[in-house]
Structure formats: structure tokens, C-alpha cells
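Quick start: what a row looks like.
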Amino acid sequence: MKSLWILLLASGSAAADDAAWLRCRAIADASSRLACYDAVVPHAGTARPTQADPRPGASAGEPQRPAEQFGLETRSRGPALDEIESRIPGRFDGWGPKSVIKLANGQAWQVSDGSTGVYRLDNPKVKVTRGMLGAFFLEIEGINRSPKVRRLE
């Protein structure tokens, strides 16, 4: 009986949506029609993009650069890159659980998989790559192990 009520409620809102879809369909201007469709589609659980740039000191019209936002997608929306490249400045002695690794591009990444690695490298090239299910991995030149990391800065 409860599922019948749910179906009846859903069909009533679907009929209202059909009228809205038909109203949008009749709009000749493409951008106005798209805006109408966007207004009809529920955005449950997602925030609509805003024009404001969350970076301090950024102007309202200035787009965010993809490399600066790499690894912070859960905090902001932007174009998704598959990887970034940089260096670890100075001497790199390895990592341990929860180690923070600062890159030459200003980003800070924390080891999140509990792994350890002891190496002695100077200014190694690194690549942070996107893995499955939102994971990121730090590939260090000359090392065949890649710790799982998460971006702090």
C-alpha cells in the first residue's frame, strides 16, 4: 500500500514536469531553452556552479587554472586533469605514513596509505596521477613504488 502512494505522488510530480518540459521545448532561442531545461531538472545533492572564484585575490571573471585545482576537485569544481608533473625541491629522504610532501609548484600532498619508503634523492621529478575512485598516486622518478596521497594545499 505504501509503494502505491509513492507511485501516485511521483506520477503527479511527473505530470507537472511534463508541462515544464513542453514549455521549454517551445522556446526558440537555444540558450534560453537550455536555461529553461536546467531549471526543470532537479539538482539533488549537487551545488550549482557559481561565478565567484574561491581563490584569494582572484578576480570574478578570471578562470581557475586546472593545474592549481588538481586534487582539490571535492572542494571545487573545475576541469579534471589526469596527472600533473613537478619536482620535490631539495633532498628527498623518502616517506612514511601521513608524511607531507611539498612540491616545487606549491602543492602539498600527504601520504594516505600507510606505506613507507626510504630513498636518498635530490630534486626528483614527480608525477601525481589520478587513480580509481578519486585516489591519487605519487610517482617519483627512479622509484617503482607509488604511495597513495591526498592533497592538502
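That is the whole record. The chain has two domains: 2-40, 67-151. Confidence is low (pLDDT under 50) at residues 4-9, 44-55.
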